[in-house]
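Shift notes (night). Ran Succinate dehydrogenase hydrophobic membrane anchor subunit while the centrifuge was going.
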Amino acid sequence: MTTQTDIPTPRSPYVRRKTTRGNYELYSWVFMRASGVLLVVLVFGHLFVNLMVGDGVKAIDFAFVGGKWSSPFWQIWDLLMLWLAMIHGTNGVRTIINDYAQRDVTRGVLKSLLYLAFTITVVLGTLVIFTFDPCPPDAPAELLASFCTA
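Came back to this:
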């Protein structure tokens, strides 16, 4: 049962509680807006180049990806898209976990799994982008990009 001392009077000034988080949630909110706008540009640029330019979707094969990732510009483009999408999505799921997971243990386990999945995906994706060999030694010549020597 509450007493009169538990409820502040309507005209009392708002007293802000001290938190240890600082401005993390504000920066997280701003990041979500900025990364969302940048992701729209990156994703639609990616879709335009892959689907509209050239022969369209039927031209996407190993040679297409090999030719594209032989350019540092496209490596950085796809790396930015990967990192921003993963950070953006992880931040959104983190917010959902904070909102809906009621117990601290559940929240901790879910966020640990989320961060583990984020780390594995980003590390593997980054390795694939930068270690991709467009001219593997024993590949059939018809599958290789035009700049590869068979």
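The helical segments are 24-52, 62-68, 72-100, 104-131. The mean pLDDT is 86.
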